[in-house]
Amino acid sequence: MTLKTVDKLFRVFAVVVVLIVCVGLYALSQMSGDVVLTWTATGDDDTVGTAAAYDLRESSIPIDSSNFEQCRRILNMPVPKAFGSKESYTVTGLSAGWHWFAIKARDNAVDSLGNPAYNWSKMSNVARKWIFKRSAPRAIDDLDTE
Ligand SMILES: [Ca+2]
After folding, report:
1. Could you report the per-residue pLDDT of 113-142, keeping only the tens digit for each?
2. What is the CATH code for 34-131?
3. 60-68, long-range: CB < 8 A, 24+ apart
4. Ligand 1 centre from 37 Cα, in Å?
């Protein structure tokens, strides 16, 4: 083999190793049962101001505007940031399989009695994530006493 061929083979080997590491990290990140959701904050009035609250929903079936209210609500969502800000939230403890996510925002409008008017936005686009099955360690079968 010439030195050039050895060099080429090494380069191919290096690329394959990097690809394997990347795929492994990607798979690991999906086995944790956590999903990091990111979105851009909406405003209180369309693109102006800051919304008052989020309503994030999760489901193991596709979410649409007709079933949004029946999907599991993610509690303790952070307070919205100003319009245009980058938002991020990690949903933890998800089971294996597909998970769908959608979010709405509400403004700070109140009714004539001062109660929240629950002026909700339309539903966001729907994001989807696959969670791999998390395997437990193999059972120990040689436990003994001396
Ligand atoms: Ca408003």
Report:
1. 888 888 999 999 999 999 987 677 889 999
2. 2.60.40
3. 60/95, 60/97, 60/98, 60/99, 60/100, 61/100, 62/100, 62/126, 62/128, 63/100, 63/101, 63/102, 63/123, 63/126, 64/123, 64/126, 65/122, 65/123, 68/102, 68/104, 68/123
4. 24
- Interval 5-15: pLDDT, tens: 888 887 777 77
Q: Could you tell me the distance, in angstroms and rounded to a whole number, from the CA of residue 62 to the centre of ligand 1?
A: 29
- CA–centroid distance, residue 119 to ligand 1 (Å): 7
Question: Separation of 135 CA from ligand 1 center, angstroms?
Answer: 47
This prediction has a pTM of 0.70
Domain ranges of the chain: 1-31, 34-131
107 Cα: distance to centroid of ligand 1 (angstroms): 5
- Look at residue 125 in the predicted model and tell me its pLDDT: 98
How far is ligand 1, taken at its centre, from the CA of residue 41, in Å?
14
